[in-house]
Every structure is written in C-alpha cells, then in structure tokens.
C-alpha cells in the first residue's frame, strides 16, 4: 500500500462509481452531466482548492489556470446556457470563447432576439427554429471543448489514474 493518496478522491468511491466516472470521460456530453466526474477532475488538478486560481498568503503569485480547467468551464457554461436564455450571459460567453464558435453563438443569439421581438407566440415555428439553432451551437461548443479537454495532458493523467485505481479494486 502506498503512503501517497490520490487527490481526486477516487479511493473513496465504489468500483461502480469509478466505472461511471470512467465511462463519462469518453464522451463530452456525458462528462458534462456528471458532477462527480467534474469535481474529481478539478480536485485532481488542484486538491487544495479546486477552481481557485488566485494569490494566497502562502503563494504570492497567482497560479496559472490550466487549459483543461478552462475547457471544462466553457463546457459547463455552454451546458448551463442551453437551459437558460439570458441574452447578456450568452453574449459575454460568446466573447470569452474561441472566436469562430463565439461568432456562431452571437449569430444564433441575434437571430433568436430578432424572432423574439417579431413574434408573440411561444410556439411560433421561427422561434422554435431559432431556439433549436442556438441549442445546437451550444452543444457544438460542449463537444469542441470536450474534445480539447480529452486530449489535454491533465485529463489524460486523470483518466490514467482512475483506470489504475479501478484495476486495483
């Protein structure tokens, strides 16, 4: 038995739970719906304070946020926005992400806003189409950043560690 413990908390999980997390790592749309997998990944990257990348008393310099965490955050925000159509939030998000994806999202947001001002019916075909288009763009963002996450060294190490722990159970 090793004296070093894993930082992600995998040793506290059952074999079935680890299998679910491992299965989620294969597909971005499954991983984004699994909060346990996301939290374990964040803890794997930064066991002390997952998601906090600011200066502290013990660390005068601000820690650089790994790209893998940025990708996960973009995935989380796109997933969140699929169910929440806050125009300001959508536009801010579009400015933060890859320019091509951001432009695509801005276009979808503008089309949706235009249709919303022109129609009063919630089930109007144009409104339904604009909502569908926006949801597709947001899903594309989840998949794009999910694929970037999968090839990041941090995520590959996370999956390798989970696999190793799973095999030892």
Report the principal-axis shape: elongated
Low-pLDDT segments: none
Major sheet attributes = none
Number of helices: 8
Total number of beta strands: 0
Q: How many domains comprise the coordinates? A: 1
**What structural class results from the helix and strand content?**
mainly alpha
Please write out the topology.
Layout: H1 15-24, H2 28-31, H3 35-45, H4 67-83, H5 87-96, H6 99-118, H7 125-151, H8 153-168
Helix pairs in contact: 1-8, 4-7, 5-6, 6-7
Tell me about this structure.
This protein has 169 residues and is mainly alpha-helical. It has one domain. It has eight helices and no strands. Helix 1 packs antiparallel against helix 8. It starts with 14 loop residues before the first helix and ends with a helix.
Précis, in short:
This protein is mainly alpha-helical and 169 residues long. The protein contains eight helices and no strands.
Highlighted features:
169 residues; mainly alpha; 8 helices; 68% helix; elongated
């Amino acid at each position: 038995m090793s004296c070093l413990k894993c930082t992600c908390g995998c040793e506290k999980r059952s074999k079935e739970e680890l299998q679910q997390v491992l299965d989620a790592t294969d597909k971005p749309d499954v991983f984004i719906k699994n909060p346990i997998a996301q939290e374990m990944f964040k803890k794997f990257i930064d066991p002390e304070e997952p998601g906090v990348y600011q200066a502290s008393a013990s660390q005068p310099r601000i820690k650089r946020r790994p790209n893998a965490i940025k990708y996960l955050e973009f995935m989380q925000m796109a997933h969140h926005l699929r169910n929440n159509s806050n125009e300001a939030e959508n536009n801010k998000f579009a400015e933060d992400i890859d320019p091509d994806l951001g432009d695509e999202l801005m276009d979808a947001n503008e089309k949706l806003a235009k249709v919303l001002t022109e129609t009063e019916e919630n089930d109007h075909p144009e409104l339904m189409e604009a909502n569908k288009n926006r949801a597709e763009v947001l899903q594309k963002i989840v998949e794009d950043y999910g694929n970037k996450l999968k090839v990041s060294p941090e995520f590959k190490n996370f999956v390798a560690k989970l696999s190793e722990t799973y095999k030892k159970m």
